[in-house]
Specification:
By secondary structure, this protein is an alpha+beta fold. About 25% of the residues lie in helices and about 30% in strands. It contains 4 helices and 7 strands; from the N terminus they run H-H-H-H-E-E-E-E-E-E-E. The strands form 2 sheets. A 4-stranded antiparallel beta sheet has the order 2-3-6-7, with helices on one face. Strands 1-4-5 form a 3-stranded antiparallel beta sheet, with no helix packed on it. Strand 2 and strand 3 form a beta hairpin. About 20% of the residues have low confidence.
């Protein structure tokens, strides 16, 4: 399920086949539309740490770290609407992550622990001052999606994966433009 949420905003990657190895029940579950991005993207998350607001390489890395932390909260709470304020309205991957949070919320499900662990975050390209590419080496942890009674609905397998974040610097600070699974 986790890898399916990061499908990317561009052309399908060869690694998209890895989503088939995640739980097949994920595709069978109904998906409820997430909140509209036009409203959510107009407001910046007020809790973004000062370090993650800096228009520097370290700031971009801190922003990605904060985004992943909020992604974990969105799926363990679950909570909808917390990722959109950190994304451009056009980000299909952010929409997919939010739809997963909405599905969990509507089903009364949640993850029984943080589904993503960070191994490494580093800037790949910062030559354009308004658009940085950041690589995140992550682990999809072996976690259970559980219902309100604690019954296991599905278990995600532990897998290493890499995500390329494209961040844009706006007057609101960093925003995720796209996410792509990397080989």
């Amino acid at each position: 399920m986790l890898l399916a949420g990061c499908g990317g905003d561009g052309k399908p990657q060869a690694s998209s086949s890895s989503t088939a190895s995640t739980s097949p029940t994920t595709t069978a579950a109904p998906i409820t539309p997430a909140p509209t991005t036009s409203t959510a993207s107009q407001t910046t998350d007020p809790n973004i740490p000062a370090a993650a607001r800096a228009h520097t390489i370290a700031g971009a890395e801190a922003f990605v770290r904060y985004f992943i932390e909020r992604w974990n909260v969105a799926w363990t709470g679950p909570h909808t609407g917390i990722l959109f304020p950190m994304c451009q309205a056009s980000s299909n991957a952010c929409t997919a992550l939010e739809k997963s949070a909405a599905r969990l919320t509507n089903a009364g499900h949640r993850y029984d622990g943080s589904p993503v662990t960070i191994r490494y975050i580093g800037v790949l390209d910062a030559t354009n001052p308004d658009k940085y590419e950041v690589l995140a080496n992550l682990v999809q942890e072996r976690r259970n999606e559980i219902d309100g009674a604690g019954k296991i609905y599905v278990t995600d397998k532990r897998k290493d994966f890499r995500v390329q974040f494209v961040l844009v610097n706006t007057d609101q600070g960093w925003l995720v433009s796209s996410l792509k699974l990397m080989k």
